[in-house]
Amino acid sequence: MKKTINIGIGFAVIWIILKLVAFNFRIFLTDLKPFIFANMLFVTLGICVSLYLKKREGEASNLLGDVKTGMTSSIIYTVLVSAFIYFYYQSIYPEFNSSKISEMELLLKDESKVAELRTSNPDMENNSSDEIRNKVMTSISQYYSAQFTMTISLLGLLVYSTLNSLLITLIFRKIIFKDHAESSVPNAS
């Protein structure tokens, strides 16, 4: 169990270092896709490495034990990365949120965009332009907050790690360590 925790911590530290290096060199500050994909990669690698090491040790286990092994490293990763995301957008780079809110304010100054919102949303048909701007800005300011970003990343990584742990466990059991599982079953002779 200790190895799986260390694997989760290790991959989380790697992701955090990547994020800080990108911040330091001012690359991918507004593009979140590389870090989202890196999260997916590191969660998957954490699960794979944990399961592989457990199987290589020759421990007999059932499906739920293997899922638990994969989930242990991925949950540690998820919690550490989500906590860092909160800290990053709250203290290290709060300008990201304010710049996104400013972009939306500039966009809403264009009356055609407000009219487009009015026609696309039936709830806003009878609202004035100022009321629409206030509603949109209220929801945008909630959306671009460190708490919301942390909550979404925690939820997304948790769902992804759960599904990935199940899928990778099945792949490892049925394909990669198929011979290992068959040789560990006692013969009825």
Helix count? 8
Helix content: over 70%
The value of Rg in angstroms is 23 Å
Mean pLDDT: 86
β-strand number: 0
Beta-strand percentage? under 5%
Uncertain residue segments: none
Shape: elongated
Order of helices and strands: HHHHHHHH
Structural class: mainly alpha
Intertermini distance:
35 Å
User: Major sheet: size, sense and barrel closure?
Assistant: none
Q: Can you describe what's shown?
A:
This protein has 8 helices and no strands. The chain is mostly helical. The two termini are 35 Å apart. 81% of the residues lie in helices and 0% in strands.
List the helices and strands and how they pair.
Elements (H helix, E strand, L loop, with lengths): L1 H23 L8 H24 L6 H30 L2 H15 L1 H10 L8 H15 L2 H31 L1 H6 L6
What features would you highlight for this structure?
elongated; mainly alpha; 0% strand; 189 residues
Give a nutshell description of this structure.
By secondary structure, the chain is an all-alpha fold.
